[in-house]
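Inputs:
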Amino acid sequence: MPNWFKLTKAVLLAGGLMTSVAHAEETVTWWDFFGGGDGVRMKQLVADFNEAHKGKIKIDATTLEWGTPFYSKVQTSAAVGEAPDIMTYHASRIPLAVKQGILQEITADDWKTMGLGRSDYAPATWEAVSIDGKQYAVPLDTHPIVLYYNKDLLKKAGVLGDDGKPKGMDSRENFTATLKALKAAGVKFPLGSVTADGNFMFRTVYSFMGQQDGELMTDGEFLAGDSAKKLENSLAVLSEWTKEGLQSTYTDYPATVALFTSGEAAMMINGVWEVPTMTDLKNNGKLFEWGAVELPVIFDHPSTYADSHTFALPANKGEEMSPEKRAAVLEVMSWMSKNSLFWATAGHIPAYGPVTNSAEYKAMEPNHTYSSLTANIIFDPKTPLAGIAGPIFDVMSNFFVPTLNGEMEPAKAVEEIKAGLAEL
Amino acid sequence: MMLRNRRNEGLFGLALVAPFVAIYGLVFVYPTIKLFMTSFTDAPLIGDGNFVGFDNYARLPSDRRFGTAVWNTAYFVLITVVPGTLLAFAIALGVNRLAGRLQAAVLALFFLPYILPVSVVYLLWDWTLNFQFGIAMYLFDMLGIARIPVFKSTAWFMPAVGMITIWWTAGFSILLFLAGLRTIPTEIYEAAALDNAGRWSTFRRITWPLMWPITALVLTIQLISQLKIFDQVYLFSVGGRPNDNMVLVYYVFQRAFQSDQGGRAAAVAVVLFVIVIVVSVLNFQLTRLSGGRDR
């Protein structure tokens, strides 16, 4: 019989030796949810960071599945002390995380150590990471949705303006006319819409609500006053496009991107995070001439929904973060913020002001074209019920799918949504 | 030879089952007790809550999503358990008539889906039935049939997921049935042939009653696993219209992980727990009674 005791001891000793050798270098475990074209950029940034901090700090990064799976894992792992040292987080999810007590506060001292502060960010972005005057995350970017368009198809249909932007961006009638012109020119889907995914359509619908100054939540009440009517108006536009055959139906996220990149859909409303997908395809000679602009003004004034990717530190239960580790993590967040110009190639608008004010950023396309929307951004309502994969998302998305595909009347959907939200 | 010591033997037996009892207690009994306790509190997902009595249970009857979940789970059980069992039986009968390598090959074909993880099953069928790019949709176009948004319409969702589940899990049931068919002595069939029994009466008088214990076992396994349906429903409906396709386990997940309401989730889990126990005891008794009739 082998001597298990001796064997175990040897294994433990070997393990101990290995950790003591690596001790000079601080390893920071990192979780993110960037799976697409932006994930490639983030991996590049992490590699650059590791190169610049060789022998001092090393990021050990893992990419997890975006949305519900990511946040389910974060909540439970923090509760048992198994969460990473740092993770990416959606600003919209911060109210819930703070209520659950799974985030560490970023203190005034931390901000000083990082060399970052309030004045480096847009007021709305700073506000999005603050709860009761305390900050719980370091903003990395804001990521709105934009209108992508196929210049070749638009030109063929005669709806490409002289400025290289689509015609009819100023009103509902004119934009619908543009869609109809595309249809008449033989385009299968004038607009590619993620109509099978209510979670995604929340962004479009909420933007259209913002264009009428509608609010999802007013003083803790859902769809108060005429906000319900404004939600109905927003849904009505989209379901009208479906009825007239102007947008793709029952299309899930990957299919929408595929419809656009294959030229079957002439335009597409999608997040700025698809910019790298287009850039990479174009560089490989596999894409037409394309552009991206701020959403059309369908109602009263421009408005676009956005969320913000941030860095947050999980409050690992029963595990105190060592000062060395904390210093390393702060260095990670500081470096990433200051080097976020590269992150802009992922389409996102960096949150760190000095980067977006730089001449290099202003020369970037199509980022510069759609950067006009930063003045018209609206975020999620600040409640633990909001955010990616949150309960509000679920309730609303459930009725978006039937409405946007012509199975349900917008008025009925609003009624159901109100009832569903009341049950939360 | 050593003299047997009853007391020692008892202790030895205890020592042998102790690891199992300890693990069973740790990962099943303890969490179950905790679950019952949590269901009477307003606990969030993480941490403890205040005692609220039967509040979490009292609100269930008027909870529409819970109603949908109960209905969908029952519907799913209805369309998968008996049809799935009968189909597996039929396939096993067919495979049983083959011999040698051919039998092994055919059996492997039917068993193959069972070894696939659910994520692969999801991808395969999404690629087949996706509204815009699914292979089946091009077939529909060729035949001039209008495309159907299978996983996005409430009418098609459950039947489709049910069919996929049967396709996915039939392999295991087929194996059980095949093992059962091989235990029936050939002499009985020979005797039946001598008595000029036709194929149908041989099946009805010999195969079916002798196979009944296996059929009852497969039915019970199917019933319990389909009551706990979650993975497929989650994967096929995430992002779409989850609340219309709600099933009980999904509802537990949604309350706990998305709404941060551990107490309410626990109450739903307790209800499911009770349903599974009641239904499986009932199923066992019923199959026993009906099986006795032919003997």
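Chain A has a mean pLDDT of 90. Flag for discussion at group meeting.
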